[in-house]
Amino acid sequence: MSASLLLRPRTAVADDFGWLQKLCENLGEAMCDFLASHQKVEAKVQSVAEARYSEWYPSQPAFSLLMPFELGTDAGELVVVVPGQLISQILDVQYGGLGKVPERQGFSTSEMRLAMRLNAHLLSYVNDALLGAIPEAVTAQPVQTDLQVFDLPQYRDSIVLAKIDVECSALGSNAIHAFIGYAQAKKIAMRFADANPNGLPADPEWKDKMQSATLRVALPARAILTQTEVPVSRLLSLRPGDILPVMLPADVPLLVAGHLFARGTIGEANGRSALKIENMEGSDHE
């Protein structure tokens, strides 16, 4: 059964999910902007309607990138689903390829770095679309990479599902989906109605504050000075005063949120130990 056959409008008025239509238009714009330096891209929202998650997700490829965005207190999560093959194609094009890549079943390290950049890129567009309705800044949750094992108990089953077609010459046509629980979608619609009873645009000052809050989001960063492997027998025999020989690497990896972000060398700055960044991981930093 195709996903399009699962979209069943409820008795809700048409404007109930207009906010999600606008948000998905923002996501389409975000994808065009993300790919603009490589290809001419067009994006269009094809549909926004109610669906059953349990009926929709089996028809989708397991090799997918799921990006949950926490919308704030009692507003639930919005989940954006990008085909894994599209991520592979984008990376191939960025490295000078033609976007012709074989079918994949898992993401490489480089593809995960690209996925993290895309996730961060989409976040500001999601925030912009929700100005005036969500008091807190939207936060990006850890990405997941297998739609078939994605657990979504809070949505129970009834969701509002949107489909965005993204098309360019090198990558062909790809469908990106976004969904949120039906109850949460209705709640956000009511918040928009309360915030803008006359359909007035969001306050620019509020928009600036939301963007500023997004840029202040703290991510865990960790520099690994050294690591070694020790046999279990040696670990069990360790006593206070024992010495484990280690070697300091020529370059030190910097991990951000568990993913390799940069490499550097250890030195000193203002009388304190410091890490000097020597190179960033990924071609977009060059």
Describe what this molecule looks like in 3D.
This protein has 286 residues and is an alpha+beta fold. It has 2 domains: 3-215, CheC-like (Chemotaxis protein chec, 3-Layer(aba) Sandwich); 221-285, Surface presentation of antigens (SPOA), CATH 2.30.330.10. Helix content is 30%, strand content 28%. The strands form 2 sheets. Strands 1, 2, 3, 4, 5, 6 and 7 form a 7-stranded antiparallel beta sheet that branches. A 4-stranded antiparallel beta sheet has the order 8-9-10-11, with no helix packed on it. β9 (252-256) and β10 (259-269) form a beta hairpin. The model is unreliable at 1-14 (pLDDT under 50).
What portion of the residues fall into strands of 2 or more residues? Answer: 25-35%
State the major sheet.
Answer: 7 strands, antiparallel
**What pattern of helices and strands is seen along the backbone?**
HEHEEHHEEEEHHEHEEE
Shape, principal axes of CA atoms:
globular
Which structural class do the helices and strands define?
A: alpha+beta
Taking the alpha carbons of the first and last residues, their distance comes to 45 Å
Strand and helix map with partners:
Elements: H1 18-35, E1 41-52, H2 53-56, E2 63-70, E3 77-83, H3 84-94, H4 109-129, E4 139-140, E5 144-146, E6 158-168, E7 172-181, H5 182-195, H6 204-215, E8 221-223, H7 232-237, E9 252-256, E10 259-269, E11 272-280
Antiparallel strand pairs: 1-6, 2-3, 2-4, 2-5, 3-7, 6-7, 8-9, 9-10, 10-11
Helix pairs in contact: 1-4, 4-6
Condensed summary:
The chain has 286 residues and is an alpha+beta fold. It folds into two domains: 3-215, Chemotaxis protein chec, CATH 3.40.1550.10; 221-285, Roll (Surface presentation of antigens (SPOA)), CATH 2.30.330.10.
